[in-house]
Specification:
With 532 residues, the chain is α+β, with helices and mostly antiparallel strands. It is built from 21 helices and ten strands. The structure holds zinc ion.
């Protein structure tokens, strides 16, 4: 997923004579070279030395200097009885910084020297070739190297093939490793903390660089996501996706999909707020973030402390609206085995949009209303009738909570209907809404069999079918926990986001969670997925 270094795509709107184009290109090359000559004290020697490099190694003198420096640093630590292993670790890391920087710089130079000077688009040999140095920041410090660039007469643009080969973006100052680190840190913490944490790990980044680079990586992630989602639009790709499995064929399984949403605070109209308010516009700064999670029921288990855990699961998070959520969730469900699942189970709270989405994309799925949300609705009526947490409220709600667990929504609806005429106007309206809620959701209340199965498992009398059923979640706790985790980063006090900013960062975070980080940062692939 490296970004191309091409300065532009072919532009052919105003055709110029080839001679004029060549002349302009030559002038530009001269100007670039002049700029560099002005910056370096011995540019000609530097460039010649760089071009002559054939090995990325340290000289014997450099190795000896490293060894001496290291021994000196360690000797100092060992002399001081209060300096523990942490001091040893620091001493070794500091002594290694410069030799490692030199090695990385030489390896970068060698890579540049061996990269053919061809156009990235049409692979044509570039003309008007010149050498130009570039300095980038790496995990070992600044690296300076020289690389060839040239003009593609076909695409009519300048190309720096070595930059492309090294994974460097145009005008972005960071090495691929630091590109990754900015992305990772920024998804986990606000920039000011990320700067301090990076510094502690020996990487100096300004807040501005960190922010700009992380956003660029977020856009890269969004582009990668869009490319993946395009598979949904071609029948061939779609069937391939539906056939793809996560491993060897297994026992029939149930795929669980949980959906929820929360609010993010955004600053939509930078600098125009007062003007727009004066014009009487109502500025709504809270926007929905839609989220989903997908997992196989047989990947759900319990810790020793009986806390439910899911070993493999897919995540979806977007600020892009319901259509975006629907596509992303469908893709994620296919990735996690929608095509092979014996059953699909959608669990969520009572939001109408969720069930519309489920009916549209997962028409054969079983639907389950989150039990705790359902309980909450009964408690609301109880509190309205008898006051918050009164014995009367508890007494009134108890048989209804039981009816809910017995899969008897009719009993709940009947109780509410009988109650309604005896209430004042305001309460009648409230109870009417509740009756509607239970009517809408009565086919999503299936808890009894699960509870019976769980009891049978406890008693040791469960059938194999009951053992499986006992593992089914009663509620959408998995997605609610995920929402809270995202909120820890995206919903901090006094924090504002822009739509573009939070979507890009959320997309990065979701790549990380979905174990697809290496699709953005190839060097970060786990050994099992590495190229060689
Ligand atoms: Zn070209």
């Amino acid at each position: 997923m490296t970004t191309t270094t091409a300065t532009s795509r072919p532009r052919r709107t105003r055709p110029q004579s080839p001679r004029k184009v060549q002349q302009a290109a030559r002038r530009q090359a001269r100007r670039l070279t002049d700029e560099i000559m002005a910056q370096s004290a011995h540019p000609a020697q530097d460039a010649a030395a760089a071009a002559a490099l054939t090995q990325a190694t340290l000289t014997d003198t450099e190795l000896a200097a490293w060894r001496d420096d290291l021994q000196q640093r360690l000797a100092t630590v060992l002399q001081h009885s209060e300096q523990h292993l942490g001091f040893v670790e620091e001493a070794i890391a500091r002594a290694a910084q410069e030799p490692l920087r030199l090695l990385a710089q030489r390896a970068a130079q060698l890579k540049a020297n061996t990269t053919p000077c061809q156009c990235a688009h049409c692979h044509r040999e570039l003309t008007l070739q010149k050498l130009l140095p570039r300095t980038i920041h790496s995990r070992f410090g600044p690296l300076r190297f020289w690389r060839r660039y040239g003009w593609c007469s076909d695409c009519q643009s300048w190309h720096f093939p070595a930059d492309y080969a090294l994974g460097l973006a145009k005008k972005a100052p960071l090495s691929p490793y630091l590109q990754e680190i900015t992305a990772l840190l920024t998804t986990k913490m606000p920039p000011e903390q990320a700067v301090a944490v990076a510094q502690r790990f020996g990487v100096d980044l300004s807040r501005c660089t960190l922010h700009r680079e992380a956003h660029r990586q977020g856009l890269k992630a969004q582009a990668a996501r869009s490319a993946a989602l395009a598979q949904l639009d071609s029948w061939e790709d779609f069937t391939a996706l539906a056939r793809a499995t996560e491993g060897p064929p297994s026992q029939p399984f149930t795929l669980v999909i949980e959906i929820d949403a929360w609010n993010v605070r955004e600053r939509d109209h930078w600098g125009q707020t007062d003007t727009l308010r004066a014009q009487g516009e109502k500025l709504d700064r809270w926007h929905w973030v839609y989220m989903g999670t997908v997992f196989r029921l047989d990947h759900r288990g319990h810790t020793a402390g009986d806390r439910p855990v899911i070993s493999q699961r897919g995540y979806v998070a977007t600020r892009g609206g319901l259509e975006a959520l629907t596509r992303q969730l469908h893709y994620e469900a296919l990735q996690r085995g929608l095509g092979q699942a014996q059953q699909v189970l959608v669990i969520a709270d009572g939001a109408v949009w969720i069930w519309n989405l489920a009916a549209e994309r997962f028409p054969n799925a079983r639907q389950r209303l989150d039990l705790w949300h359902a309980d909450q609705h009964l408690w609301e009526v109880a509190h309205d009738l008898y006051g918050r947490d009164t014995p009367e409220a508890r007494q009134w709600v108890a048989p209804l909570l039981q009816a809910l667990r017995n899969d008897q929504p009719c009993q709940i609806i009947q109780t509410l209907e009988e109650l309604q005429p005896r209430l004042n106007q305001a309460l009648q309206e409230k109870v009417r809404t509740q009756i509607e809620y239970w009517n809408n959701n009565q086919n999503r209340l299936h808890y009894r069999a699960i509870m019976a199965a769980r009891k049978a498992v406890e008693k040791g009398t469960a059938t194999p079918e009951q053992i499986q059923r006992a593992n089914e979640p009663l509620g959408s706790g998995a997605i609610e926990a995920t929402c809270r985790q995202y909120q820890c980063r995206f919903k901090r006090t006094g924090q504002f986001w822009t739509t573009a900013g939070d979507e890009a960062l959320m997309c990065l975070e979701t790549f990380w969670r979905n174990d697809r980080w290496h699709l953005l940062f190839a060097h970060a692939a786990p050994p099992s997925l590495a190229h060689n």
